[in-house]
Inverse folding.
Protein backbone atom coordinates (compact mmCIF):
# COMPACT_ATOMS: atom_id res chain seq x y z
CA UNK A 1 0.00 0.00 0.00
CA UNK A 2 1.27 3.34 -0.95
CA UNK A 3 1.55 5.90 1.84
CA UNK A 4 -0.03 9.26 1.25
CA UNK A 5 2.77 11.73 0.99
CA UNK A 6 2.54 15.18 2.58
CA UNK A 7 3.46 17.56 -0.10
CA UNK A 8 6.39 19.69 0.91
CA UNK A 9 5.64 23.36 0.70
CA UNK A 10 8.12 26.13 0.25
CA UNK A 11 9.05 27.99 3.44
CA UNK A 12 9.35 31.30 1.65
CA UNK A 13 6.54 33.69 2.51
CA UNK A 14 5.38 36.53 0.37
CA UNK A 15 6.72 39.55 2.21
CA UNK A 16 5.41 42.21 -0.16
CA UNK A 17 2.42 43.21 1.96
CA UNK A 18 4.44 43.24 5.16
CA UNK A 19 7.09 45.35 3.54
CA UNK A 20 4.44 47.79 2.33
CA UNK A 21 2.99 48.20 5.80
CA UNK A 22 6.39 48.60 7.37
CA UNK A 23 7.41 51.37 5.02
CA UNK A 24 4.04 53.08 5.31
CA UNK A 25 4.48 53.23 9.09
CA UNK A 26 8.06 54.33 8.69
CA UNK A 27 7.03 57.21 6.44
CA UNK A 28 4.36 58.25 8.91
CA UNK A 29 6.76 58.30 11.83
CA UNK A 30 9.42 60.19 9.94
CA UNK A 31 6.95 62.84 8.84
CA UNK A 32 5.35 63.27 12.24
CA UNK A 33 8.67 63.19 14.06
CA UNK A 34 10.01 66.19 15.84
CA UNK A 35 13.61 65.60 16.81
CA UNK A 36 14.40 65.70 20.48
CA UNK A 37 16.07 68.96 21.29
CA UNK A 38 18.95 68.85 23.69
CA UNK A 39 18.50 71.49 26.35
CA UNK A 40 21.52 73.76 26.75
CA UNK A 41 21.20 73.49 30.54
CA UNK A 42 20.25 70.46 32.52
CA UNK A 43 16.94 70.85 34.32
CA UNK A 44 15.42 68.23 36.55
CA UNK A 45 11.75 69.15 36.27
CA UNK A 46 9.50 68.72 39.31
CA UNK A 47 6.51 66.39 39.28
CA UNK A 48 2.88 67.27 39.80
CA UNK A 49 -0.40 65.39 39.59
CA UNK A 50 -2.44 67.92 37.65
CA UNK A 51 -1.10 68.62 34.21
CA UNK A 52 -2.27 69.79 30.82
CA UNK A 53 -0.72 69.22 27.46
CA UNK A 54 1.09 72.18 26.00
CA UNK A 55 0.52 73.49 22.49
CA UNK A 56 3.20 72.78 19.93
CA UNK A 57 2.91 76.11 18.18
CA UNK A 58 2.49 79.62 19.57
CA UNK A 59 4.49 78.53 22.53
CA UNK A 60 7.53 79.91 24.28
CA UNK A 61 9.46 78.29 27.05
CA UNK A 62 11.88 79.71 29.57
CA UNK A 63 14.36 77.18 30.82
CA UNK A 64 15.62 78.06 34.29
CA UNK A 65 18.55 76.27 35.82
CA UNK A 66 21.52 77.28 37.99
CA UNK A 67 20.23 80.83 38.16
CA UNK A 68 20.34 81.21 34.37
CA UNK A 69 17.52 81.64 31.92
CA UNK A 70 17.41 80.31 28.39
CA UNK A 71 14.74 81.70 26.10
CA UNK A 72 13.11 79.76 23.29
CA UNK A 73 10.09 80.19 21.06
CA UNK A 74 8.49 77.78 18.58
CA UNK A 75 8.27 78.42 14.87
CA UNK A 76 10.92 79.80 12.55
CA UNK A 77 8.67 82.61 11.30
CA UNK A 78 7.97 83.76 14.85
CA UNK A 79 11.66 83.61 15.71
CA UNK A 80 12.58 85.80 12.74
CA UNK A 81 9.95 88.37 13.66
CA UNK A 82 11.08 88.28 17.30
CA UNK A 83 14.65 89.04 16.33
CA UNK A 84 13.52 91.94 14.15
CA UNK A 85 11.71 93.35 17.18
CA UNK A 86 14.80 92.87 19.34
CA UNK A 87 16.98 94.54 16.70
CA UNK A 88 14.72 97.60 16.83
CA UNK A 89 14.73 97.62 20.60
CA UNK A 90 18.50 97.39 21.02
CA UNK A 91 19.49 99.25 17.81
CA UNK A 92 21.51 96.36 16.48
CA UNK A 93 21.42 95.68 12.77
CA UNK A 94 21.15 92.08 11.72
CA UNK A 95 21.67 91.00 8.13
CA UNK A 96 18.95 88.84 6.53
CA UNK A 97 21.48 86.01 6.66
CA UNK A 98 21.84 86.39 10.43
CA UNK A 99 18.10 86.51 10.93
CA UNK A 100 17.76 83.28 8.98
CA UNK A 101 20.43 81.68 11.11
CA UNK A 102 18.69 82.80 14.26
CA UNK A 103 15.48 81.14 13.06
CA UNK A 104 17.35 77.87 13.08
CA UNK A 105 18.41 78.20 16.71
CA UNK A 106 16.33 76.18 19.18
CA UNK A 107 17.09 78.39 22.12
CA UNK A 108 19.14 81.38 23.10
CA UNK A 109 20.74 81.87 26.50
CA UNK A 110 23.11 84.83 26.20
CA UNK A 111 23.02 88.57 26.32
CA UNK A 112 21.71 90.27 23.17
CA UNK A 113 25.08 91.98 22.66
CA UNK A 114 26.65 88.57 22.20
CA UNK A 115 24.16 87.39 19.55
CA UNK A 116 26.11 88.60 16.49
CA UNK A 117 29.24 86.83 17.67
CA UNK A 118 27.23 83.72 18.56
CA UNK A 119 25.64 83.53 15.11
CA UNK A 120 29.05 83.71 13.50
CA UNK A 121 30.20 80.60 15.37
CA UNK A 122 30.04 77.09 13.97
CA UNK A 123 27.61 74.59 15.47
CA UNK A 124 30.35 72.76 17.36
CA UNK A 125 31.68 75.97 18.87
CA UNK A 126 28.18 76.96 19.94
CA UNK A 127 27.65 73.66 21.73
CA UNK A 128 30.92 74.07 23.57
CA UNK A 129 30.36 77.68 24.60
CA UNK A 130 29.08 77.84 28.21
CA UNK A 131 25.59 79.26 28.65
CA UNK A 132 25.62 82.60 30.46
CA UNK A 133 21.86 83.09 30.53
CA UNK A 134 19.65 85.90 29.30
CA UNK A 135 20.09 88.83 31.71
CA UNK A 136 17.10 89.29 34.00
CA UNK A 137 16.71 92.18 36.40
CA UNK A 138 14.04 94.57 37.53
CA UNK A 139 15.12 97.58 35.48
CA UNK A 140 13.73 98.75 32.16
CA UNK A 141 16.68 97.17 30.41
CA UNK A 142 15.54 93.67 31.37
CA UNK A 143 16.47 91.61 28.31
CA UNK A 144 14.21 88.70 29.13
CA UNK A 145 11.30 91.13 29.35
CA UNK A 146 11.97 92.34 25.82
CA UNK A 147 12.50 88.86 24.43
CA UNK A 148 9.13 87.72 25.76
CA UNK A 149 7.45 90.95 24.76
CA UNK A 150 8.80 90.80 21.20
CA UNK A 151 7.97 87.10 20.89
CA UNK A 152 4.40 87.84 21.92
CA UNK A 153 4.18 90.70 19.44
CA UNK A 154 5.68 88.51 16.72
CA UNK A 155 3.24 85.69 17.37
CA UNK A 156 0.31 88.07 17.30
CA UNK A 157 1.57 89.45 13.99
CA UNK A 158 2.40 86.15 12.30
CA UNK A 159 -0.28 83.80 13.62
CA UNK A 160 -2.72 86.23 15.23
CA UNK A 161 -2.75 84.16 18.41
CA UNK A 162 -1.81 84.65 22.04
CA UNK A 163 1.62 83.25 22.79
CA UNK A 164 1.62 80.78 25.64
CA UNK A 165 4.57 81.11 27.98
CA UNK A 166 5.79 78.26 30.13
CA UNK A 167 8.57 78.04 32.70
CA UNK A 168 10.70 74.94 32.69
CA UNK A 169 12.53 75.10 35.97
CA UNK A 170 14.95 72.87 37.76
CA UNK A 171 13.58 71.39 41.01
CA UNK A 172 16.53 72.63 42.98
CA UNK A 173 16.30 76.15 41.63
CA UNK A 174 16.00 78.71 44.40
CA UNK A 175 12.77 80.62 44.60
CA UNK A 176 14.19 84.17 44.11
CA UNK A 177 15.20 83.32 40.52
CA UNK A 178 11.72 82.06 39.75
CA UNK A 179 10.18 85.09 41.47
CA UNK A 180 12.25 87.37 39.24
CA UNK A 181 10.93 85.64 36.12
CA UNK A 182 7.34 85.69 37.35
CA UNK A 183 7.71 89.42 38.04
CA UNK A 184 9.10 89.93 34.53
CA UNK A 185 6.08 88.18 33.05
CA UNK A 186 3.63 90.03 35.26
CA UNK A 187 5.14 93.33 34.25
CA UNK A 188 3.75 92.76 30.77
CA UNK A 189 0.45 91.45 32.10
CA UNK A 190 1.14 87.81 31.43
CA UNK A 191 -0.68 86.55 34.49
CA UNK A 192 -1.36 83.07 33.24
CA UNK A 193 1.45 80.77 32.30
CA UNK A 194 2.47 77.16 32.56
CA UNK A 195 4.98 75.40 34.74
CA UNK A 196 6.40 72.43 32.89
CA UNK A 197 6.20 69.37 35.11
CA UNK A 198 6.28 65.63 34.78
CA UNK A 199 3.39 63.42 35.80
CA UNK A 200 3.25 62.00 39.30
CA UNK A 201 0.55 59.65 40.54
CA UNK A 202 -1.22 60.93 43.59
CA UNK A 203 -0.52 59.09 46.84
CA UNK A 204 -3.88 58.34 48.34
CA UNK B 1 15.83 31.63 1.93
CA UNK B 2 17.08 30.50 -1.35
CA UNK B 3 14.71 29.26 -3.90
CA UNK B 4 15.46 26.58 -6.36
CA UNK B 5 15.79 27.74 -9.86
CA UNK B 6 13.70 25.26 -11.77
CA UNK B 7 13.62 27.01 -15.04
CA UNK B 8 15.63 25.41 -17.73
CA UNK B 9 18.54 27.13 -19.22
CA UNK B 10 21.81 26.71 -20.86
CA UNK B 11 22.55 25.11 -24.15
CA UNK B 12 20.14 22.72 -25.75
CA UNK B 13 20.98 20.42 -28.48
CA UNK B 14 20.94 22.19 -31.75
CA UNK B 15 19.26 25.24 -30.23
CA UNK B 16 20.29 28.83 -29.95
CA UNK B 17 22.06 30.15 -26.90
CA UNK B 18 19.32 31.52 -24.71
CA UNK B 19 19.54 33.90 -21.84
CA UNK B 20 18.56 32.31 -18.60
CA UNK B 21 15.12 33.42 -17.42
CA UNK B 22 15.40 34.71 -13.89
CA UNK B 23 12.75 34.67 -11.22
CA UNK B 24 11.18 38.07 -10.52
CA UNK B 25 10.73 37.35 -6.84
CA UNK B 26 13.00 39.26 -4.57
CA UNK B 27 13.74 38.21 -1.04
CA UNK B 28 12.21 40.98 1.06
CA UNK B 29 13.14 39.68 4.51
CA UNK B 30 16.13 41.93 4.98
CA UNK B 31 14.22 44.94 3.76
CA UNK B 32 11.37 44.33 6.19
CA UNK B 33 13.87 43.87 9.01
CA UNK B 34 15.42 47.18 8.26
CA UNK B 35 12.07 48.94 7.97
CA UNK B 36 10.92 47.70 11.36
CA UNK B 37 14.22 48.61 12.92
CA UNK B 38 13.82 52.18 11.70
CA UNK B 39 10.20 52.30 12.87
CA UNK B 40 11.29 51.24 16.35
CA UNK B 41 13.98 53.90 16.34
CA UNK B 42 11.58 56.66 15.36
CA UNK B 43 8.94 55.60 17.86
CA UNK B 44 11.42 55.60 20.70
CA UNK B 45 13.05 58.91 19.88
CA UNK B 46 10.04 61.08 19.24
CA UNK B 47 6.48 60.59 20.39
CA UNK B 48 7.33 59.98 24.03
CA UNK B 49 8.54 63.55 24.42
CA UNK B 50 5.48 65.75 24.80
CA UNK B 51 5.92 68.55 27.31
CA UNK B 52 3.21 68.82 29.92
CA UNK B 53 2.57 71.74 32.17
CA UNK B 54 0.65 72.88 35.19
CA UNK B 55 -1.20 76.15 34.74
CA UNK B 56 -0.45 78.96 37.11
CA UNK B 57 -2.55 82.07 37.27
CA UNK B 58 -1.23 85.04 39.18
CA UNK B 59 -3.43 87.88 40.42
CA UNK B 60 -3.46 90.96 38.24
CA UNK B 61 -0.80 93.32 39.47
CA UNK B 62 -2.28 96.67 38.68
CA UNK B 63 -0.84 99.32 40.90
CA UNK B 64 -3.04 102.12 39.66
CA UNK B 65 -6.42 100.91 40.79
CA UNK B 66 -7.01 99.41 44.14
CA UNK B 67 -10.13 97.34 43.96
CA UNK B 68 -8.98 94.69 46.35
CA UNK B 69 -11.51 93.56 48.88
CA UNK B 70 -10.50 93.17 52.47
CA UNK B 71 -10.22 89.53 53.37
CA UNK B 72 -11.44 88.31 56.73
CA UNK B 73 -8.56 86.77 58.60
CA UNK B 74 -10.68 83.89 59.80
CA UNK B 75 -10.87 82.69 56.21
CA UNK B 76 -7.21 83.02 55.29
CA UNK B 77 -4.60 80.39 55.72
CA UNK B 78 -0.99 81.38 55.21
CA UNK B 79 1.52 78.79 54.11
CA UNK B 80 5.19 79.71 54.38
CA UNK B 81 7.65 77.70 52.36
CA UNK B 82 10.92 77.13 54.17
CA UNK B 83 14.07 75.22 53.51
CA UNK B 84 14.44 71.40 53.31
CA UNK B 85 10.97 70.92 51.79
CA UNK B 86 9.29 72.10 54.99
CA UNK B 87 6.27 74.34 55.23
CA UNK B 88 4.76 76.26 58.08
CA UNK B 89 1.11 77.19 58.16
CA UNK B 90 -1.24 79.20 60.33
CA UNK B 91 -4.63 80.85 60.09
CA UNK B 92 -5.00 84.61 60.26
CA UNK B 93 -2.22 87.16 60.51
CA UNK B 94 1.43 86.50 61.36
CA UNK B 95 1.43 88.98 64.25
CA UNK B 96 -1.65 87.49 65.78
CA UNK B 97 -2.29 84.00 64.35
CA UNK B 98 -5.58 82.33 65.16
CA UNK B 99 -3.91 78.94 65.31
CA UNK B 100 -0.36 78.27 66.41
CA UNK B 101 2.05 78.08 63.45
CA UNK B 102 2.72 74.45 62.62
CA UNK B 103 5.70 73.05 60.76
CA UNK B 104 4.90 70.17 58.43
CA UNK B 105 5.94 68.60 55.14
CA UNK B 106 4.24 67.83 51.83
CA UNK B 107 2.10 64.83 51.05
CA UNK B 108 -0.90 63.08 52.42
CA UNK B 109 -0.13 63.32 56.14
CA UNK B 110 1.49 66.73 55.82
CA UNK B 111 -0.01 69.94 54.56
CA UNK B 112 -2.81 68.21 52.66
CA UNK B 113 -4.44 67.02 55.87
CA UNK B 114 -4.38 70.51 57.37
CA UNK B 115 -5.68 72.02 54.15
CA UNK B 116 -8.63 69.63 54.05
CA UNK B 117 -9.39 70.09 57.76
CA UNK B 118 -9.27 73.85 57.70
CA UNK B 119 -11.13 74.32 54.46
CA UNK B 120 -13.98 72.20 55.86
CA UNK B 121 -13.95 74.22 59.04
CA UNK B 122 -13.98 77.55 57.21
CA UNK B 123 -16.74 76.43 54.87
CA UNK B 124 -18.88 75.28 57.80
CA UNK B 125 -18.36 78.53 59.70
CA UNK B 126 -18.69 81.16 57.00
CA UNK B 127 -20.18 79.30 54.06
CA UNK B 128 -17.36 80.60 51.86
CA UNK B 129 -14.26 78.87 50.57
CA UNK B 130 -10.94 79.26 52.33
CA UNK B 131 -8.30 81.58 50.88
CA UNK B 132 -4.76 80.28 50.84
CA UNK B 133 -1.77 82.60 50.67
CA UNK B 134 1.47 80.97 49.63
CA UNK B 135 4.58 82.81 50.73
CA UNK B 136 7.76 81.23 49.43
CA UNK B 137 10.85 82.33 51.34
CA UNK B 138 14.18 82.93 49.64
CA UNK B 139 15.42 79.58 50.88
CA UNK B 140 12.65 77.54 49.29
CA UNK B 141 13.08 75.84 45.94
CA UNK B 142 11.03 75.83 42.77
CA UNK B 143 9.99 72.24 43.48
CA UNK B 144 8.44 73.35 46.78
CA UNK B 145 6.32 75.93 45.03
CA UNK B 146 5.16 73.41 42.44
CA UNK B 147 4.37 70.83 45.15
CA UNK B 148 2.38 73.41 47.07
CA UNK B 149 0.34 74.42 44.03
CA UNK B 150 -0.17 70.76 43.34
CA UNK B 151 -1.47 70.10 46.85
CA UNK B 152 -4.00 72.90 46.35
CA UNK B 153 -5.03 71.39 43.04
CA UNK B 154 -5.52 68.02 44.71
CA UNK B 155 -7.64 69.52 47.51
CA UNK B 156 -9.55 71.55 44.93
CA UNK B 157 -8.84 74.94 46.43
CA UNK B 158 -9.41 77.70 43.88
CA UNK B 159 -8.80 80.75 46.03
CA UNK B 160 -5.09 81.09 46.32
CA UNK B 161 -2.31 83.48 45.63
CA UNK B 162 1.46 83.59 45.69
CA UNK B 163 2.49 86.56 47.79
CA UNK B 164 5.84 88.02 48.79
CA UNK B 165 6.99 87.06 52.23
CA UNK B 166 7.30 89.69 54.98
CA UNK B 167 9.88 90.11 57.73
CA UNK B 168 7.77 88.82 60.67
CA UNK B 169 7.12 85.68 58.67
CA UNK B 170 10.80 85.17 57.95
CA UNK B 171 11.43 85.53 61.68
CA UNK B 172 8.82 82.88 62.29
CA UNK B 173 10.61 80.51 59.90
CA UNK B 174 13.92 81.30 61.56
CA UNK B 175 12.47 80.56 64.98
CA UNK B 176 11.40 77.13 63.79
CA UNK B 177 14.73 76.43 62.13
CA UNK B 178 13.48 76.13 58.60
CA UNK B 179 15.12 79.17 57.12
Amino acid sequence: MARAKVSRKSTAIDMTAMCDVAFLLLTFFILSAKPKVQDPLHADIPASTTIQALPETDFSSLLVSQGKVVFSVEGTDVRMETLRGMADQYKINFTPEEIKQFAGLDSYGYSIQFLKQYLAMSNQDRAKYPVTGVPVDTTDNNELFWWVKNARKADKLVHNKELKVAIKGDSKEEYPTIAKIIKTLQKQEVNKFGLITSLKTVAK
Amino acid sequence: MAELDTSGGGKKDGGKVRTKKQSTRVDLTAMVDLAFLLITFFILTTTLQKPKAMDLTMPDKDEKQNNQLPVPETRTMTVLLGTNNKVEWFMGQPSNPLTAPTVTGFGKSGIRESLLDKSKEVLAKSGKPMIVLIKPSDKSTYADMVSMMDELNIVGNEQRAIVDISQPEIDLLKRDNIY
